[in-house]
Specification:
The complex is a heterotrimer of chains A (about 350), B (about 425) and C (about 325). Chain B is of the alpha/beta class and about 425 residues long. Chain B has 15 helices and 18 strands. Chain C is globular. Chains A and C meet through helix 3, helix 5, helix 7, helix 8 and helix 11 of A and helix 1, helix 4 and helix 5 of C.
């Protein structure tokens, strides 16, 4: 595979941006209730500029559906896709391993435990995302703490610590599941498969903020990540602050993933597969990889969520898995024997 | 101007186990200094200490007069560039992308490579002859090409000091020469200071103006090659017996294992076989001969020839010649003597060039009737004759014509069989 | 270290944004419902929330099968424009558009139906926040007792602008209940038949205890619920069951296979109900939903009691024995 889009990077970016727009528009027009395209356009235009609160006497049902049900959900899907893909790209770069995912440091295991604890103790449910986030980032920081060897962050130790915390969090979650009643159990299990339904605008703003900050951080240290691929000592000798780069990348990547899953539950495969696919298209230079992954990730997740919406709200994590796994296997078979990705 | 200065540097990796102890060194601009020493003497730690990858516990390191403690990594990288021993890259970057990484110290966080950066990178690639495959993926090129890419990357940093960390250890002799020649040229013509850590004494001796011999983290000796690479020093630091010679052509030093000792080989008692070979053609002949209890000698072999390394390893007496050099009269004469002392002479299917044609001549001259002469695959000589006017072919023909019972075999196995038959006949 | 400071600052900022967002989220009614008119009346639902109406709701979405039954019993079924997937009674409810179930609520459909109010229950009280987001009022029914069912009826009546009808209908139910349990309500404790009612099987055997409408039904039907010392919907262990030795076991029909697994166990062999084969399955919908059809459930229970072979002097003397068939609603 020879990185077909590497030379046409700018054009590809534009093409993917256009594809994004198309995907968003199509997703907006699909749903349980049929709303003609013309109406959608009218509704959107009538809301420019959109300020977040409006006071009609009686809201038009279609307007509500588009602006309060579909649009926030689709936007969150897009932003979440970006966050997860960028996070995955970063993790794969830091661990120099195409098997790394955003959840490798225990973000997902921590998130599940936080949610399980919250549901089990009947915590006021709007606070559940906060519980998930606190436990997720708590797990990451614990892994970090365990992974520090003599004042530096050792990649291998981090990986092992992540594995250990994963096991522990999962075990504790299973314990809670054991003692939970059927409705709670169902809620917890549903969370591990992810869902974008019931997205409200606040979630969109929060995720957008973190996505912007996180992606900016990851991108700012993209070249450093490139140079680190030739070895940490080599990179140091080229002037790269390896320790700082690792910390920033890992924290940013974990944050990106943690915020997303706090609201949506665990959506897998996006962070693992999208960076791969992007790498095959534009090559391993992170300055190109990250933007392309971001767009591809957004498009992918929105598409999966639309499929989910139209199929009776099957958990979106199942859809990403069903699409993602075969694609992954295809990549595997196709690239077997070829070194590198 | 002193470009690099180490003052009583003591450092290491684990507490209480220093790798470098009280090391001091002054290096002037434009010098080419080699650092040699046995394994564990601290050679690569030295480079890591200079580039601030390892911090000195005691003492100071100064680059261009400034203490490295006060310099940022970026600043150091703009002055000193490292070529590592080997590099593993997990993702398929192109050669050009890797070389461009050398410009990192000069770029701001959000800056991209500019035209000037590309120009510098192109220049380095052309110097190292890697330009022609700049689009290829880094995981698709050979080890030798990879090292040249690493040199290109280092040069792209526009350094004033080049640090080689056993940069040619994994290369074959041809590539070793290529890489070192390129660097030597940069040193001579542009005044690039070079500090090169070597495993191979001869390489160091050949290219470096001065040599630092390290022994267990301390400086054992420092100075011109002839001052440092003495028999005494080598015995003291490496624990070996070696002879130091001067290259007949350019006067550079080279070290080779000692000749004229009676070895455990104990040639006097057994049937002596002299092997004429080179370029790796001996394969496992030496080992097999020793196994079957022959007294083995060999010659003439150039230092750094892999056959010589094999012979050395087995304690086989050899006539040696300087690396990259044609066979001189001295070696030629010694070879003739060896042949005379032997009971049998085996000529392997070595590639013949102008430089070692005299090996064949020696056979022609000194092989008498009471010598057993075994030629391995003589008929393929045409394919391995690199002399002008195909002199080797002619020599072989002469050999086959003049000598009555020349044995021709196709392989090492055939050679051994013939020798066995010979032995039983004698008894 | 410089990077640590950056990270700490980022961490704090993000945490602040998140906490604010999490707290503000449900409270920021993005669609303000206040019209320009003055509300003319208000109703308090089971969560204590006051719902205000200018005029009685004409378009109602009912979420939960029990709510659907209540609304139709209240004779406002013509105002119901949408129901959840499981609302199957009465017959007319099946014709109405479906808006999902508790696992997957279809908000788009609900919004599209433009209801004036959505009637939900305590079990899905989370729906309230989402509905508010989309500018919709929700009315929450709930409570565990029989009285709660009657009060739901009255409150719904108030909400729909027919408070007298609500009261009347509630009274109707009360009277029917009284009538059915006339003979069995006051059976003295020592004469009562011990019964085990299995309401579910999840991590053990679930059974209704004190404070549940099912307990009330059983007790009024003249049984002694062996789990009445427990409160709410509780779990009872096998040991306790064997120890308390019920004379009858009653369970909803959809639990028949699981219950049979238990009753066929060796350890259960000596329980009176098993020995005498008095294991009865009744219509699950009717007995589990907090709806008007509990009256029918009550009838079934009373019949079961009367058909019990164990004779008691009190019963023989005071009953007028009607041989009714088991009525399945």
């Amino acid at each position: 595979m020879n990185h077909p889009l590497k030379k046409h990077f700018k054009k590809s970016l534009v093409a993917f941006a256009a594809l994004t727009l198309v995907t968003l528009v199509i997703s907006l027009s699909l749903g349980s209730v049929h709303i003609p395209f013309k109406s959608i356009v009218e509704i959107l235009i009538s809301r420019l500029p959109y300020m977040g609160h409006y006071y009609p006497s009686y809201p038009d049902a279609r307007s509500t559906i588009i602006l309060y049900i579909r649009l926030p959900r689709i936007l969150l899907g897009f932003i979440a896709g970006i966050s997860l893909a960028v996070s995955g790209s970063s993790m794969q770069g830091v661990f120099k391993n195409p098997m790394a995912s955003p959840f490798i440091l225990g973000v997902s295991a921590g998130g599940v435990l936080g949610t399980a604890v919250g549901i089990f103790f009947g915590i006021w449910w709007p606070l559940l995302p906060l519980m998930a986030f606190i436990f997720a980032m708590g797990t990451v920081f614990t892994v970090f703490f365990l992974g520090r060897v003599k004042g530096t962050t050792d990649i291998t130790t981090l990986l092992l610590a992540g594995l250990a915390m994963n096991f522990m969090m999962t075990a504790l979650t299973s314990l809670i599941l054991f003692y939970s009643d059927p409705t709670d159990r169902m809620s917890i299990v549903a969370w591990t498969w992810g869902s974008l339904s019931g997205t409200i605008w606040n979630e969109v703003w929060i995720t957008l903020t973190v996505a912007l900050i996180g992606s900016a951080l990851v991108y700012a240290y993209a070249r450093d990540l490139n140079v680190m691929q030739t070895g940490e000592i080599s990179a140091k000798q080229l002037g790269i602050d390896v320790e700082k780069t690792k910390i920033i990348q890992l924290v940013a990547a974990s944050l990106l993933a943690a915020v997303v899953i706090s609201f949506t539950g665990i959506i897998g495969f996006v962070g693992l597969i999208i960076p791969h696919a992007s790498r095959l298209l534009v090559g391993p230079d992170h300055k190109k990889l990250i933007p392309i992954s971001a767009l591809l990730g957004g498009i992918f997740l929105v598409t999966c969520d639309t499929v989910s919406r139209m199929s009776g709200e099957i958990w979106v994590g199942v859809i990403t898995g069903l699409f993602g796994a075969p694609f992954f296997i295809y990549l595997l078979i196709r690239n077997r024997g070829e070194t590198g990705w | 101007m002193v470009i690099l200065q180490l003052e009583d540097v003591k450092t290491g990796y684990t507490e209480k186990k220093p790798v470098l102890k009280e090391l001091s060194l002054n290096m002037d601009n434009g010098e080419f200094i080699g650092v040699v020493g046995p394994n564990g003497s601290g050679k690569s730690t030295l480079i890591k200490t200079i580039t601030k990858v390892v911090n000195p516990w005691e003492g100071t390191v100064r680059i261009k007069g400034r203490d490295v403690k006060d310099l940022s990594r970026d600043q150091i990288a703009k002055i000193a560039a490292v070529v590592p021993q080997d590099t593993y890259i997990s993702f398929p970057f192109s050669v050009e992308e890797v070389v461009l990484m050398g410009r990192s110290p000069y770029l701001g966080r959000f800056e991209n490579y500019g035209i000037e950066d590309k120009r510098i990178a192109d220049g380095s690639m052309k110097t190292t002859e890697t330009y022609r495959f700049k689009e290829r993926k880094i995981n698709e090129i050979s080890g030798g090409e990879m090292q040249r890419v690493m040199v290109a990357r280092a040069l792209t940093q526009e350094p004033e000091l080049l640090l080689l960390d056993e940069a040619t250890s994994h290369l074959d002799i041809g590539h070793k020469k290529e890489v070192m020649d390129t660097i030597k040229e940069k040193n001579r013509e542009e005044g690039l200071s070079v500090l090169s850590v070597h495993h191979n004494l001869n390489l160091a001796a050949r290219y470096c103006d001065k040599i630092l011999l390290l022994d267990q983290g301390k400086k054992h000796s420092f100075g011109r090659p002839e001052e440092v690479l003495t028999r005494t020093n080598l015995r003291a630091v490496y624990g070996i017996e070696a002879e130091v010679h001067r290259h007949p052509k350019d006067g550079s030093l080279y070290v080779s294992p000692v000749e004229d000792n009676i070895r455990s080989n104990d040639a006097a008692k057994k049937m002596r076989v002299h092997v004429i070979c080179g370029g790796g053609s001996s394969k496992d002949l030496f080992r097999e001969l020793i196994k079957e209890n022959y007294g083995v000698t060999a010659g003439v072999l150039n230092v750094m020839d892999s056959d010589l390394e094999k012979a050395d390893f087995l304690d086989i007496e050899c006539v040696t010649e300087a690396p990259f050099s044609s066979i001189t009269d001295r070696a030629y004469k010694n070879n003739l003597d060896m042949i005379k002392k032997a009971d049998a002479v085996v000529v392997t299917d070595f590639p013949v060039g102008n430089g070692n044609l005299r090996n064949l001549k020696a056979v022609e001259r000194s092989v008498k009737d009471d010598h057993e002469l075994i030629l391995i695959s003589p008929h393929e000589i045409k394919e391995r004759d690199y002399t002008e006017e195909k002199k080797a072919v002619k020599l072989y023909r002469k050999l086959l014509e003049n000598k009555s019972d020349v044995a021709t075999v196709k392989s090492i196995e055939g050679c051994l069989n013939h020798l066995r038959i010979m032995r039983t006949k004698d008894k | 270290m410089e990077s640590k400071k950056i990270l700490i600052v980022i961490g704090i900022l993000v945490a602040v944004v998140l906490v604010m967002g999490a707290l503000i989220g449900p409270l920021s009614g993005t669609i303000d419902l206040d019209g320009s008119e003055e509300p003319s009346y208000s109703v308090e639902d089971k969560t204590g929330e006051k719902l205000e109406f200018e005029e009685p709701p004409e378009r109602i979405v009912s979420f939960m099968p029990s709510n659907t039954e209540l609304l139709f019993y209240l004779e406002v079924g013509d105002r119901v424009v949408g129901v959840d997937d499981y609302s199957d009674y009465p017959e007319e409810a099946r014709e109405l558009p479906n808006v999902g179930d508790s696992e997957g609520v279809n908000y788009e459909k609900i919004v599209d139906l433009e209801p004036d109010v959505v009637v939900i229950s305590e079990a899905v009280v989370n729906m309230r926040e989402y509905l508010e987001n989309y500018g919709l009022k929700s009315f929450v029914t709930g409570g565990n007792t029989l009285e709660d069912v009657y009060s739901d009826l009255e409150l719904l009546g108030e909400m729909c602008g027919v408070p007298e009808r609500g009261e009347d209908k509630a009274q109707e139910l009360r009277s029917r209940m009284d009538e059915i349990t006339e003979d069995t309500r006051d059976i003295p404790e020592e004469e009562r038949i011990d019964v085990l009612y299995i309401s579910g099987i999840f991590q053990g055997i679930n059974t209704p205890g004190e404070g549940t409408f099912q307990n009330t039904l059983l007790t009024d039907a003249g049984f002694n619920n062996i789990a009445s010392d427990k409160s709410g919907w509780a779990t009872i262990s096998e040991e306790e069951i064997i120890d308390r030795d019920p004379e009858m076991i009653i369970a909803p029909d959809h639990l028949e296979p699981q219950v049979s697994e238990y009753t066929e166990k060796d350890s259960w062999k000596n329980i009176t109900a098993v020995e005498e084969d008095r294991i009865h399955f009744v219509d699950g919908d009717v007995i589990s939903r907090p709806s008007p059809r509990l009256v029918d459930a009550q009838e079934v229970l009373v019949d079961l009691l009367e058909s019990a072979e164990t004779t008691s002097a009190y019963l023989i003397n005071t009953w007028s024995f009607h041989c009714k068939e088991e009525v399945k609603a």
